[in-house]
Amino acid sequence: MTLKLVGVGGLGLMLSPAAKHLQSGSPARFLRIHDRGTRDARRDTCREAWKNHGAELVPDLASLIGDGDFDGVVVCAGKNGDDLDILRSLLAIISRSCSKPPFILHLSTVSTRFVEAATAALSTSGISYVNYPLTGGPAGAEAGTMLILASGDPDLYAKLEPTLQTIGRPKFFSERNAAGAEVKLIGQLMVFNGLMGISSAAALKSACFQESLSGEAQADFFDFLNGGAGGTRQWDVALSKGIRDNIWDQGFMLQHAVVDAIYAAELVRERSVSTLAVLPMITTALAFAYLLRKHPDQPLATHALVRELTAGQAPDLDAFLGERLAFSAPGRSLEMAIEALPPRVRDSVLLDVSEESFQADL
User: Fold this and answer.
1) What is the pLDDT of residues 194-238, one digit of tens each?
2) Would you identify the CATH topology of the domain 3-177?
3) Model pTM?
4) Strand locations in 14-101 (E)
């Protein structure tokens, strides 16, 4: 049986490649894709891909749900603050329009508290909800190799698995619905600690050898040293773009990464893991917030952090951190990291989510 789906976020970097992966005869087909109307060359290409797939582009969520004759809604949009509004609106429309509630497959990276609240809220309306975060970036989505971190209802996973295998590499972790979100944030600890390690090493290499931060010689050095015991994929997928090619605006973009770092820090605190594990995530979030404030109109990826670690730039960063980072008060430090964010990014964080948060539009 071919699953009939509708999608929110289908013009984004992570879900849009599904238009080409799910060809005729695939285990799923998208009937409609929500289109907010933003025009640029990349999104126009995505629109053509969805039209070739056979999907209709619709301007609002009510049109997306239509008569309710489909199996599931796929949402791959933003963070807590973005997706709460989307799921709350979908819940209200589905409750009015669908005689048989569809499932909701949520592919965004959100906090574990969000997943738990959404599960409780949607289940009261008979909607099966699962959160399967994605990891592997746009390149993985294009290649169909991104990891899909699944958990929750095992029967729904079994129904979705053929589709997931077509667009990526799924793995089921637990019947606890928040387990997929936990796994994504566990992975972010590895990402951000690896990034901080290789960035610190690059800044120190520049200082010790009195050399520029970027250049082919520096890239060759870390190609070699990264093969040792301290090696990290953050050299290959992130920092090498800046060091070798002076590219700082491609990769894991700061406005998304800083929220993930905050969610990871909050999860570590909630699970009572040592402050030693919390502080690197808070420091990372603060450093990303500093970059967003320093370069408000310049799109930057996470590896741009390395430029702030050099001797000439470090005093300003250190002063920013010194005003906000305290080993004895990690909760307050995390609050100050959120307060330091630009308003749009700050609003997307939204740590305080409960079951009641989803009920306002009903």
Assistant:
1) 999 999 999 999 999 999 999 999 999 999 999 999 999 999 999
2) Rossmann fold (3.40.50)
3) 0.95
4) 28-34, 56-58, 72-75
**Where does the chain hold its CATH 1.10.1040.10 domain(s)?**
185-349
3-state helix vs strand vs coil in the chain, percent to 5: 55, 10, 35
Strand order in the sheet with 134-135: 134-135, 147-150, 169-172
Q: What is the pLDDT of residues 282-334, one digit of tens each?
A: 999 999 999 999 999 999 999 999 999 999 999 999 999 999 999 999 999 99
If you average pLDDT over residues 235-253, what whole number do you get? 96
CATH 3.40.710.10 for domain 185-349, yes or no, is no
E strand segments, the chain: 3-8, 28-34, 56-58, 72-75, 103-106, 129-131, 134-135, 147-150, 169-172
- Residue 57 gets which letter from DSSP? E
- The secondary element (H helix, E strand) that includes residue 219 is helix 216-225
Per the CB < 8 A criterion, the answer to whether 209 and 221 are in contact is: no
Which pLDDT does position 359 carry in this prediction?
Answer: 83
